[in-house]
Design a protein that fits this description.
about 325 residues; alpha+beta; five-stranded mixed sheet; three-stranded antiparallel sheet; flat
Length: about 325
């Protein structure tokens, strides 16, 4: 225990410095490149679902048009067979490099997809003037509910896209402002990753990294409930009135203790000398997402619950822990 307290005291000041080790920086870069590669593979795979003739024509549209107009990207995304609900295209690709400054910022945009093969509107019917007004028409008995969900998905996607653009625009402005200084170095990277897509939900992760001598990463998670088209909140997953915050928080503390006992290099803020640093409980604003297996994953940015060198940490909540209150 004394050794642990000594370690906590030694890293207390380090916590405030936002330092990331060289190994951490390289790991971050590798994860970003991996995300880009995986997204690119998924993108190409979606194209191959159509006939060979359709691929030849769609390839030109898909690789060129999305970056020329957000409305065209939305129209293009509604071609049948590309994807069932939503997909992600590149809205903006900001690149800069000189002897002291590097920026690689890819701004994603979520675009709704056609919900079934009976969709009657096509790119030919969609223009920059009316694309936001056009809603896919369906002929099945659940047309009303489907159309409502589709409209909600479009609205939710617009809200998320606006948030992402605001975040990335501020980062670009900050980067360009720092170009005025003739001393020091800066590096900025932004990319995204679709970390879950099922029949019920879709989650996009926005990954941000900023380095200026030292480095820091922080992430944003955006989950859409595909059944109703709304943005999923943590409280939506649980029975009203249940103590899901307490249940999840207790499980996270258990996982923290187990990890620290198993590895002396793993440290979380549980019994630190600075009480304000200690992790108590999550809130409804804490980052979370549902992984591909349906597990709730609670995500913390650097420095939230551990020293900066630990990076962004996540805790998968076992389904049996929350099964009685979901």
């Amino acid at each position: 225990m004394q050794n642990r307290e000594k370690e906590l005291n030694e890293i207390r000041s380090e916590y405030m410095t936002h330092n990331m080790s060289e190994e951490g920086v390289e790991k971050m870069k590798e994860s970003i490149e991996k995300a880009k590669s995986e997204n690119h593979r998924e993108y190409k795979h979606s194209i191959l679902k159509g006939s060979l003739a359709a691929v030849a024509a769609a390839f030109i549209i898909i690789t060129v048009l999305p970056n020329t107009s957000a409305n065209v990207a939305y129209a293009m995304s509604r071609i049948p067979l590309l994807s069932e609900w939503v997909k992600v295209v590149t809205f903006r690709d900001y690149q800069y490099s000189d002897d002291r400054n590097t920026a690689d910022i890819t701004v994603p945009e979520i675009v709704p997809q056609a919900v079934n093969e009976n969709t009657t509107d096509t790119i030919a019917q969609s223009t920059d003037e009316n694309i936001s007004e056009t809603v896919p028409q369906t002929t099945d008995e659940n047309a009303s509910g489907t159309q409502s969900a589709t409209e909600n998905i479009k609205k939710t996607a617009d809200e998320i896209n606006a948030e992402i653009k605001e975040i990335t625009e501020k980062l670009i402005q900050e980067f360009e402002e720092n170009l005025k200084y003739e001393e020091g170095y800066q590096e900025m990277m932004v990319t995204s990753e679709v970390i879950a897509t099922t029949d019920n939900y879709f989650t996009l992760k926005l990954i941000c990294y900023q380095g200026a001598g030292s480095g820091a990463e922080w992430d944003y998670f955006y989950t859409i409930d595909l059944e109703n088209g709304n943005r999923l909140q943590l409280s939506d997953l649980f029975v009203e009135g249940s103590d899901y915050i307490g249940v999840i928080s207790d499980n996270i503390k258990e996982q923290m203790k187990e990890q620290m006992e198993a590895d002396e290099n793993v440290i979380y803020w549980l019994e630190a000398d600075i009480p304000d640093l200690n992790f108590d409980k999550i809130t409804d604003e804490t980052n979370f997402y549902l992984n591909q297996d349906g597990n709730i994953v609670i995500a913390f940015n650097e420095g939230d619950v551990a020293p900066m060198y630990m990076g962004c940490v996540e805790f998968v909540i076992p389904q049996e822990v929350v099964a009685g209150i979901m």
